[in-house]
């Protein structure tokens, strides 16, 4: 199964593409899509959409794991991130990907075993699970890979339950 993990943002959208075969992950690609703060928001969203569609077309993932929004006190920021997240969902839908969404708590639980783990613990697990030399930067990229790993673990267990008729 090829999984596209996404950490949505309008300044930085992190992505990670993993293959999961059995219980093992292999890294296909990861990085981030950046937009310039001087651009108008519609142009930033277009860049996010176009670049994410190009990544989907190039790597042909089957499924997408998108981190759900973490609401903060800044409503304007939450709305702008929500718009970027909507663009990511649309790009995945246009690519005919099965889309699953995970809260930060679910991702932390899946990687570290503790839903209140800090960012450094999650990043260390991403590095260890994927056998990387260093933690991917920026943080948004590591978060996208964490979402993909979370989905790989979750999708496997839900498929097993389906096969067992539960």
Overview features:
166 residues; globular; alpha/beta; 51% helix; disordered C terminus; 5-stranded mixed β-sheet
Structure description:
The chain has 5 helices and 5 strands. It is of the alpha/beta class. It has a 5-stranded mixed beta sheet with strand order 3-2-1-4-5. Helix 1 (41-59) runs parallel beside helix 2 and helix 3 (104-112) packs across helix 5. The chain is globular.
Strand order, sheet with most strands: 3-2-1-4-5
Secondary-structure element sequence? Answer: EEEHEHEHHH
Radius of gyration: 15 Å
Helix count, DSSP H or I runs of 4 or more residues = 5
- Low-confidence sequence ranges: 157-166
Strand content: 15-25%
Quickly give the structural class: alpha/beta
Quick structural summary:
The protein is an alpha/beta fold.
Could you outline the blueprint of secondary structure elements for this entry?
Elements: E1 2-7, E2 12-21, E3 24-34, H1 41-59, E4 63-67, H2 75-94, E5 98-102, H3 104-112, H4 119-129, H5 139-163
Parallel strand pairs: 1-4, 4-5
Antiparallel strand pairs: 1-2, 2-3
Helix pairs in contact: 1-2, 3-5, 4-5
